[in-house]
Amino acid sequence: MAIHTLYPAERGNLRLSFEYFPPKSDEMEVQLFETVEALSAFSPAFVTVTYGAGGSTKSRSLTTVCRMIKDTGLVNTAAHLTCVGATKADVDAVVNEFTTCGVRHFVALRGDPQGGIGARYEPTAGGYENAAALVAGIRAKGDFEISVSAYPEKHPESADVTADIDMLKRKVDNGATRALTQFFFDNNDFERYLERVRRAGINIPVVPGILPINNLAQTRKFAGLCGASVPDAIITRLIHLDEAPEERFKEATHIAAEQIVDLARRGVRDFHLYTMNRSPLVAAVCDLVGFERAQKAAPARREGAAA
Ligand code: FAD
């Protein structure tokens, strides 16, 4: 057994969740729902669907979330919601639309500034001023699960990790029940961050965000934008495999599985996987770690049919 595979006794009570984004075309929609079906085999505790800042994906997010709940039976589908560029009335109306199709779990986010990552954030007149205010607004509307963001390597706009943890505390004080982290690759960063979060008196679950690397160049670019780092050791393992898709897939599977197993051995029980709406790599990671697949129901046998 490889070291990035958990022994059965180590697997007890581990939970998975998956993030999806709303598809932009019919083709992408087919791919998304094939992915959702394939990954449902791992019985995720919940799945989430992202929401474009400024409401840019509002109708696609709504359609996707409603279809997940109604057609695929993923009743614990969480709707991401951002408040940037929207009034409180706009946001409240979207909350109502999500709840009408059965949503009981929101991922409450401020969203990137309207000029994009790096631009200065300006609260909208009549809107929620930040994610903490949004959490309070959603909490006032019902007894929902409310997840929020957390940043083990610091949000790019934050002066320091202390400012980030202060913001997380405000979100928890206003009713957040879980934090989902930005992706990271060095588990020491997560462990150090979690120690500081607990010392600040924050006791909600802080679930590590795991990004299996489909494409190294894209991951490095995205990490640069959102303040995450890609360790040299990972770059070295993947950078020469651009022309070798099978080996690259295998190496990326091992990298993510090693990260999950190491976190599990440090006591982490929940894992939020960024799927990028594709199942093969995420499924390979889950299989390698040893997450169990639900048995498909066997077709009913006819009365009296030979065994
Ligand atoms: P907050 O928690 O309010 O702020 C993040 C940090 O930035 C704070 O800790 C605070 O210290 C600092 N900060 C905030 N405002 C200021 C300020 N004015 N001056 C100085 N520092 C400040 N984006 C989307 O558009 N759609 C999504 O669906 C989405 N899903 C996400 C899911 C997860 C799990 C994560 C981690 C991020 C997601 N994002 C999404 C990205 C997120 O919207 C951006 O990171 C955004 O810039 C901050 O939103 P937030 O809710 O994390 O903000």
TrEMBL record:
Catalytic activity: (6S)-5-methyl-5,6,7,8-tetrahydrofolate + NAD(+) = (6R)-5,10-methylene-5,6,7,8-tetrahydrofolate + NADH + H(+)
Record keywords: Amino-acid biosynthesis, FAD, Flavoprotein, Methionine biosynthesis, NAD, Oxidoreductase
EC number per UniProt: 1.5.1.54
Keyword Cell cycle among record annotations: no
UniProt cofactor(s): FAD
Highest taxon, organism lineage: Bacteria
GO molecular function, one term: methylenetetrahydrofolate reductase [NAD(P)H] activity
InterPro entries xref list: FAD-linked_oxidoreductase-like, Mehydrof_redctse-like, MTHF_reductase_bac
Pathway(s) this gene product operates in, as recorded in its UniProt entry: One-carbon metabolism; tetrahydrofolate interconversion; Amino-acid biosynthesis; L-methionine biosynthesis via de novo pathway
A Pfam family of this chain: MTHFR
Family: Belongs to the methylenetetrahydrofolate reductase family.
Stated name of the protein: Methylenetetrahydrofolate reductase
